[in-house]
Each structure stands twice: as C-alpha cells, then as structure tokens.
Amino acid sequence: MSEDQAVAEETRRVPVAVVVTLLTAMLTVVLIAFAWPAARSQPRDLPIAVAGPAQAAAQVKGGLDQAMPGGFEIDPVADRAAAVEAIKDRDVYGAIVLDPQAPEVLTASAGGPAVAQILTQLSTRLAAENPGVQVKVTDVVPLPKDDPRGAGLAAGALPLVLGGIIAAAVLTQRIKGGGRRVAGALAFAVTGSLALAAVLQFWLGSFEGNYLANASVIALSIGAISLTLLGLEGLFGFVGLAAGGAVMMLLGNPLSGLASAPEMLPTGWGSLGQFLPPGAAGTALRSVSFFDGAGSGRSFLVLGCWLVLGLLLCGFAAVRSRGRSVVQARSEASPVTV
C-alpha cells in the first residue's frame, strides 16, 4: 500500500468516540420509543357508557373527572342492553350500569385487558359509594380461555412489523427485478399470514372467529409494510429502506396500542399509531377476531391505503429504473466521435 493510499485509508476511518456516541444515541432512541408509551400509559378520553338516570350519570361523570381528569369520555345510554350493544359495536370499551338494586360494571377484555382492569377497579369505587350493595362485574366480550391476558395478541405486533421489514430486506438483496420483488412480497404476505394466524389461533389460542379473516388482516399488514419499504428502497436505496423500517419499528410497533389501547397512550401518539400499519392491524385483528368486525372500517382503510402506497412507490421505482436503463442503452449505442 502506497503512502497516499495509507493516508486516504486513515482519513476514511471513523473515530471510536464517534461510533460509540452514535451507538449510544441509537440505543437511547430505541429505549424511548418502546418504554415511553408504556411508562406514560393511562386513560385519556377513554370512551365508556353510563346507563341510568341522567342525574346519577352526571354524578358518576363528576366523580370520574375528579378522580382522573380527562380520563374518560362518558356516553349516556338508556339501559343495560344499550350499553352491551355499544360495547359489542366497539363504540365504548365498557359501561357502568347504575341500577340502585344491582349496580354493574361491564367490561370487554377482548377489546383491551388493561382497559378492562381499570374498569374493574371502578367497581370498588362504586361499592365504596354504595355501602352494603354488591357491585357485579361482567366481561361482555372476554378473551379466550387459553390466553386470558391477551399476551399472544400483544406480542404479535413485533412479528407483524419484523415480517414486513425482513421481507423487504431479503427481497432487495436476493431478487432482481421490481416485478419479481412485488410478487415475492405479496406471496410472503399470504404464506406468512397463514402461518402466524395458525400459531396464534390454533396453538396459542389467542384468536377467535374465522381463521381466514384473521389471516387476511395479518396479510394486509405484512404486505403494506413490505411493499412500502420495497418502494422506498427502489427510490432512495438503503437510506429509504432504513428510514421506512425505523418508522415502522420505532413508531408503528410501540404506538400500535396492542398492549393496552390507543386511548391509553400519550395524547396524540395513540391516534398517530392508528394511521400506521401495526396499529391499524392490531385494531382490525381485535375487531375481526372478537367483535364480528365491528369498528374495523377505518383500520382496513388505513391498511388498504398503505398497500396502495407501497404499490405506487414500487411502480415509480420501476419506471425510474427503466428510464435509466433506456438512457444508458442509448449512451452505449451512440457512436463515439474523435
């Protein structure tokens, strides 16, 4: 190696201090992304129904606002039947039935175990306000007996994101041609979703409902993520792939609300999470698996938009690549003049 080459090689070397600083910053960002939403988890405008006389409902609302300001959004309903219907339609997470003889708290652990636990705690408050009266707690839409804490569904957010990221990364490295990559991503979305849904539903018992319907939600999520990342890589190279993967992993996963509920996350961040594929997929999975699809319309719309966006990005990347090939071919075919 010549002296000039040695100097150039030494110049290209990154100081250890810079590398350590960058690694520390990356580790800190990852910690904040995953720990901050969980550490700041609490009810924020959590919709619940209150069934009973208007005056009693107003008193309950005042008591909740005083105990947890801004924690709940009260939806007055006529009676218990209306409250149950609102829960099954996913308009509310639970309800308080103000029957003087038999007060009751209605929960739906399938809609969010953390929310159901908070509502169950409200029964203690009602019992304290009504000495001698037993407050009943009823889980209207319970989680499966094989997974009573909903751990499988909560943990499923990570494989959904990783599946899309890994698919895009492998396809860009091993498969040539935009069309073949898109076909590979779509094929993997189908096979991967069938496998994940089978494990979660038939082995772990975390899902209920129609197996193919559950798998279709997972397929939409994996397809939306992988196609979007493929398009970004085709347009911007590794930087596009890395940036897209970081958004899906560091924002989409922790803000999905699968571990609690979107309304339990810091203000604004839960709503943002629902416009990213992991959050939309989580809400759609809960709705399709446990609520006969109620409340899943917006989630499917979000997933569909991401899927279309991914296809458009891949299309733009293919057109640009084809244009470059044509220019290169013309340049090579043109005569060289001396």
Automatic annotation (TrEMBL):
Signal peptide: none annotated. Keywords: Membrane, Transmembrane, Transmembrane helix. The keyword Chaperone does not apply. It comes from the Bacteria. The chain crosses the membrane at residues 14-36, 151-171, 183-205, 211-230, 235-255, 300-319. This is ABC transporter permease.
